[in-house]
Design brief:
about 300 residues; alpha/beta
Length: about 300
C-alpha cells in the first residue's frame, strides 16, 4: 500500500475527529475522499502530509511512518490545501522558482522544471503575472504546479475545486486526469460528487470520523440501489397509466412526478418490459421509458444515513 492507516485516531479534547480509521490506497490510484463538513477529511490529509500528529494509531506513506519518518515522507508527497496561502506579491515565475530552490533545485535544471510545470498546468502565458492578479482557478493550478516541482509520488489535494466556476473545475479535472495518467497516486477530497465519479478509481466515504465505505464507485452504486425505479412518459392520461401500472405484480408503488409516471419495483424484479406491455394493453402510448440511475450523490446520502448495511 502506498497509503495506509491503522486504527488512526485524532482527538481534540473530548471531540473525536478520526476514530480508528483503516484506509488502504494502492499505488497509482486516484482515491476520492468524501464526507460532510467536519467528517475528518482534512484531518486525515494533514496527518498524511505530516502536519498533524495522530492521538494514536499509525499512518504510513510509501511504507514510511508519519511522525517517526516524516522527513523522509515529505519529499515524496505534494500537499495542496484548500486555501492558497501567502506570497501573492510575487510573479508566477518567481513563486515557482522560490519553491524550487527550497527543494534544492538549482541552475538550468530549475529553469527547465519550472518551465515544464508551467506548461503542464497551462500557466506558461501567466509566468510574468502577479500571483495576486490570478483568478481562484489559476491559483489552484499554480498550487498544483508548486507541488509538482519535486516530482512527488503522492498528491494530497484538499477540496481543490472548492469555490471554482464550472470552467475552472473542468480544467482542474482535466489536469488531475493527466497527472493520474502519468502514474501519480492521488488522494482528493471534494464535495463535488459527480466529478469524483468521473475522475476516481476508488472512493472512501467518511462520516463522523469513521470510514463507512471504501471501494469502487460501481460497488458503492450497487450497494445503494434498493429495487428498480422506472420513469414512464406518456402523452396520454397519466392517472389512467398510474392506475394500470399499480395493479401489476412486482410493483411496489406508482406516483406521478414532474410529468412522468414513476414506478417502484420490488428488489426481485429486474426486467421491466412488462410495464410497456400493460400500457399498450390499455391503449396508452409510450413516449419514454427508462430506469432511474443511481448516482454518487444518491449513494453517498444512503450510505451515510445508514440505509445500506
Amino acid at each position: 500500500m502506498i497509503i495506509q492507516t491503522i486504527n488512526l485516531t485524532k482527538r481534540y479534547g473530548k471531540q473525536v475527529a478520526l476514530n480508528n480509521l483503516h484506509l488502504n490506497i494502492e499505488e497509482g490510484e486516484c482515491f476520492g475522499y468524501i464526507g460532510p463538513n467536519g467528517a475528518g477529511k482534512t484531518t486525515t490529509i494533514r496527518i498524511l502530509a505530516t502536519l498533524l500528529q495522530p492521538t494514536w494509531g499509525e499512518a504510513r506513506v510509501c511504507d514510511l511512518v508519519v511522525g517517526y519518518q516524516s522527513r523522509l515522507i515529505r519529499p515524496l508527497i505534494g500537499y495542496v490545501p484548500d486555501e492558497f496561502g501567502a506570497y501573492e506579491d510575487m510573479v508566477v515565475q518567481e513563486y515557482l522558482e522560490f519553491f524550487a530552490s527550497a527543494y534544492n533545485i538549482v541552475g538550468k535544471k530549475r529553469r527547465q522544471i519550472v518551465g515544464d510545470v508551467l506548461e503542464l498546468t497551462d500557466l506558461t502565458y501567466k509566468r510574468d503575472a502577479l500571483v495576486d492578479s490570478l483568478s481562484r482557478g489559476m491559483k489552484q493550478r499554480l498550487s498544483i504546479a508548486r507541488v509538482l516541482l519535486h516530482d512527488p509520488k503522492v498528491l494530497l489535494l484538499d477540496e481543490p475545486a472548492s469555490g471554482l466556476d464550472p470552467r475552472a473545475r473542468i480544467e482542474i479535472r482535466a489536469l488531475l486526469k493527466e497527472l493520474h495518467r502519468m502514474g501519480k497516486t492521488i488522494l482528493i477530497s471534494s464535495h463535488i460528487l459527480p466529478e469524483l465519479a468521473d475522475l476516481c478509481t476508488s472512493i472512501g466515504i467518511l462520516e463522523r470520523g469513521e470510514l463507512v465505505y471504501q471501494g469502487s464507485v460501481t460497488e458503492a452504486l450497487r450497494r445503494a440501489k434498493s429495487g428498480t425505479v422506472v420513469h414512464v412518459v406518456t402523452p396520454d392520461d397519466q392517472e389512467k397509466a398510474r392506475q394500470a401500472l399499480s395493479q401489476l405484480s412486482g410493483v411496489q408503488g406508482v406516483e406521478i412526478q414532474n410529468g412522468a409516471v414513476v414506478v417502484s419495483l420490488d428488489s426481485e424484479t429486474q426486467d421491466f418490459s412488462f410495464l410497456a406491455q400493460a400500457l399498450l394493453r390499455n391503449n396508452l402510448r409510450i413516449r419514454e421509458i427508462k430506469e432511474e440511475e443511481i448516482n454518487l450523490e444518491t449513494a453517498f446520502m444512503r450510505l451515510t444515513k445508514g440505509i445500506v448495511q
